[in-house]
Design a protein that fits this description.
By secondary structure, the protein is an alpha/beta fold. About 40% of the residues lie in helices and about 20% in strands. It is built from 14 helices and 14 strands. It has an eight-stranded mixed β-sheet, with helices on both faces. Helix 1 packs across helix 3 and helix 6 crosses helix 14. The model has no long low-confidence stretch (mean pLDDT about 95). The site of adenosine-5'-diphosphate (ADP) has 12 residues, from helix 10 and helix 12. Adenosine-5'-diphosphate (ADP) binds next to helix 10 and helix 12.
């Protein structure tokens, strides 16, 4: 099957066409600056590469552009749209309603719209992408793959806040956890790489990108995730603050005469390593360069980041009563060997020992702990698009099987 994977954001739309049997990427690209001036990037596995400015007033035009390119005689990879069997959409927030991937129907769109309040930056942008595809390919099966779904196995003891229970009942205020698509892919790839049965291992995945979260996966099921009601809770991130005492926010609001939207802007966009480094950068590469030049705030930002990751890993080892694999993934986790080493230095009490040479590996999957280490420490390149394609193919396969029976 050929699966078109769509990840639609507010002003950008990423796409890939994946052959579900070989798991090969046939083409991939990015529509950027939608509604502004429009930039289109595209590459195929046959070596065709495009980078051009194309006006894209809205998401429908962006989908138009990518579909026209996919069927283009010279640049394309398919003859017509009917060769796309399924479209898999990355959807951020499925609330408590969606515990797995689903066929996108009017009812699903309605239920997702009801979750818009929970993820106002992400869900409406995802739905615009769905709408654009439905307009242009009305007969193609569409599958929604949620970032929250994998985390839905958390128990109430992990997902409830210490707030009056009525607010959970009335408004579903609880911890949802995010990055589920990545955590699922990476925890399973780790078990496969280590030749383990995922139903028998305890894994902690550290997804350390611009947004960052840690996930405890016990016997294939999520036990806990550091992100909460929104993707703001947990680790110190690129620009997001992570855990903060709400009392400090009331204090700050009074001192600086700020309202809620202003406070939220600070927490989401001006905090994290960017804020700690006094606006130097949210990019870990730039912070490392600054640290080398003895910038003490850059150094402090990286130190706080690593310390917080180690604290979560330690607490999740306790939550699972042990850990077999600790896995680093995403931009920082895959590339920053110094941060990995620093995080692991806090975890020696777990019997962890890092192999300094393996820690420099650039492979898609690598074990960076020594053979004698009591816990396997791995670096695995995340692949959310492939996970979405797998989910979409699985849902399509189930539908086919049901049809064949009836
Ligand atoms: P997101 O998907 O959340 O935007 P990514 O997973 O793409 O984030 O990670 C982006 C971050 O990865 C960048 O902000 C940068 O700090 C970090 N990064 C990328 N490459 C490197 C590298 N070679 N060394 C250190 N950090 C890196």
């Amino acid at each position: 099957m050929k699966i078109l994977v769509i990840n639609s954001g507010s002003s950008s739309l990423k796409f890939q066409v994946i052959d579900s049997e070989s798991e090969q990427v046939l083409a991939k690209g990015l529509c950027e600056r939608i509604g502004i001036d429009g930039r289109f990037t595209y590459k195929t596995n046959k070596g065709i590469s495009i980078k051009e400015d194309i006006g894209m007033e809205n998401h429908t035009q962006a989908v138009h552009t990518l579909l026209d390119t996919l069927v283009d005689e010279e640049k394309g990879i398919i003859k017509d749209f009917s060769q796309i069997d399924v479209i898999g959409h990355r959807l951020v927030h499925g609330g408590e309603k969606f515990t797995g991937s689903v066929v996108i129907t009017d009812e699903v769109i309605q239920a997702m719209t009801e979750c818009n309040d929970l993820a106002p930056l992400h869900n409406p942008a995802n739905l615009i992408g769905v709408d654009a595809c439905r307009k242009l390919m009305p007969d193609t099966l569409m599958v929604g793959v949620f970032d929250t779904a994998f985390n839905q196995t958390m128990e109430p003891k992990a997902f409830l806040y210490g707030l009056p229970y009525q607010y959970y009942e009335k408004y579903k205020i609880r911890r949802y956890g995010f990055h589920g698509i990545s955590h699922k892919y990476v925890s399973q790839r780790a078990a496969e790489f280590m030749k383990q049965d995922p139903r028998h291992v305890k894994t902690i995945v550290c997804h350390l990108g611009n947004g960052a979260s840690i996930c405890a996966v016990k016997f294939g099921k999520v036990i806990d995730n550091s992100m909460g009601f929104t993707p703001l809770e947990g680790l110190v991130m690129g620009t997001r603050c992570g855990d903060v005492d709400p009392g400090a926010l009331e204090f700050l609001a009074k001192k600086e005469n700020l309202d809620f939207p202003q406070i939220m802007k600070i927490l989401n966009q001006e905090s994290g390593v960017l804020g700690i480094s006094k606006n130097l950068s949210s990019d870990f590469r730039e912070l490392k360069d600054a640290e080398i030049k003895y910038n003490d705030k850059a150094s402090l930002a990286r130190e706080i980041f690593a310390y917080k990751v180690a604290k979560y890993v330690g607490s999740y080892a306790a939550a699972m009563n042990g850990v077999d694999n600790i896995v680093f993934t995403a931009g920082v986790g895959e590339n920053d060997s110094d941060i990995r080493e620093e995080i692991c230095s806090y975890l020696e009490f777990l019997g962890i020992a890092i192999d300094e040479i393996e820690n420099r590996s650039q492979a898609e999957a690598a074990r960076i702990s020594t053979r004698g280490s009591k816990v396997n420490v791995l670096v695995i390149r995340t692949n959310e698009e492939l996970e979405i394609a797998r989910e979409a193919a699985a849902v399509a396969g189930e539908i086919k099987a049901v049809k064949a029976k009836s």
